[in-house]
Task: inverse folding
C-alpha cells in the first residue's frame, strides 16, 4: 500500500514505568498508554509516574483508569475512586483516559461512563478491553457512539487479535470513520501487517513486554512476596524496544 494513499497505522504502546516510556518512544511508538502493573492488565498509575513520563517524552499519553484487577463491575466506592483519580490526573498533560465499566448483564454501563466523563472533562475517554467482555459488541459500539467515545481497544472478543480478526474486521466496518477500533492483545512483528490488511484498522496496541531476571544477587529462599510464588519475586517486567521497533518497521514497510 502506498504511503500517499492512506495515513500510516498508528502504534500505541502500553508502559508501566518511565524506562518503558523512553524505550517505546525511542523505538517509534506514536502514543503511550500509561498504567501501573501491566502484569495485572494495567491499573491506574500514580500522578508521579504520569508527570515523569510527560516530562520525558513528547508523544500523546493515554492514562489508565482502573483501580483493581478483576472484573469491570464496580461498586459505588470503586467508581467514586475512579472519578477522583480522573479529576486528579486530568491536568497532567493527558490526551485521554482509557477505562470501562460493565453492568452485571454484560453491557457497557452508560450511566457510570457518563460519570467518569464528567469527572475527566475536558479530557476524553477511550474504552479499554472491558469491551471484549460485553455480551453484544455491536450494542456496545452503539453505546460508545451515544457517549461520544471515539476509540475502543479490542481483541475481537478473543484470546488475541489473530483469533479475533474476523470480528475485528466487522467492528471496524460497523464503527465507520468516526469511531476507531484499535486491535490489541497479541500484536507482534510477524502478524501486524496481516492484521491490518485483514481488519482495515487504523491503529494497533501492544505492550511489548518481556520478563527479565532480577538483578538481585542476594535472594532470600522460601519467601513469596508476590503472586506467582517465590520465583516471581526475582523477575522484572520490561518494555522490549526491539519488539516495538519491529512492529513499527513492519507497518512502515507495508505503507511504503
Result:
Amino acid at each position: 500500500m502506498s504511503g500517499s494513499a492512506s495515513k500510516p497505522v498508528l502504534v500505541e504502546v502500553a508502559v508501566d514505568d518511565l524506562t518503558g516510556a523512553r524505550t517505546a518512544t525511542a523505538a517509534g511508538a506514536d502514543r503511550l498508554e500509561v498504567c501501573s502493573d501491566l502484569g495485572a492488565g494495567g491499573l491506574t498509575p500514580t500522578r508521579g509516574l504520569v508527570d515523569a513520563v510527560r516530562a520525558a517524552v513528547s508523544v500523546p499519553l493515554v492514562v489508565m483508569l482502573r483501580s483493581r484487577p478483576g472484573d469491570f463491575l464496580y461498586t459505588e466506592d470503586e467508581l467514586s475512586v475512579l472519578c477522583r483519580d480522573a479529576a486528579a490526573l486530568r491536568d497532567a498533560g493527558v490526551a485521554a483516559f482509557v477505562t470501562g465499566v460493565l453492568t452485571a448483564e454484560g453491557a457497557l454501563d452508560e450511566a457510570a461512563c457518563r460519570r467518569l466523563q464528567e469527572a475527566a472533562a475536558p479530557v476524553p475517554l477511550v474504552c479499554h478491553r472491558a469491551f471484549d467482555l460485553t455480551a453484544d459488541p455491536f450494542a456496545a459500539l452503539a453505546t460508545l457512539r451515544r457517549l461520544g467515545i471515539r476509540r475502543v481497544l479490542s481483541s475481537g472478543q478473543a484470546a488475541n487479535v489473530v483469533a479475533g480478526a474476523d470480528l475485528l474486521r466487522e467492528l471496524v466496518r460497523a464503527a465507520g470513520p468516526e469511531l476507531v477500533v484499535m486491535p490489541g492483545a497479541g500484536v507482534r512483528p510477524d502478524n501486524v501487517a496481516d492484521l491490518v490488511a485483514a481488519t482495515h484498522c487504523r491503529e494497533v496496541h501492544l505492550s511489548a513486554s518481556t520478563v527479565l531476571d532480577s538483578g538481585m544477587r542476594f535472594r532470600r529462599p522460601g519467601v513469596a512476596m508476590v503472586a506467582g510464588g517465590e520465583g516471581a519475586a526475582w523477575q522484572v517486567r520490561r518494555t522490549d524496544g526491539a519488539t516495538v521497533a519491529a512492529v513499527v518497521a513492519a507497518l512502515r514497510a507495508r505503507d511504503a
In short: The mean pLDDT is 94. The longest helix spans residues 241-255. Strands lie at 10-15, 31-34, 61-64, 96-99, 125-127, 151-154, 180-183, 203-206, 209-213, 235-239. The CA atoms of residues 67 and 78 lie 7 Å apart.
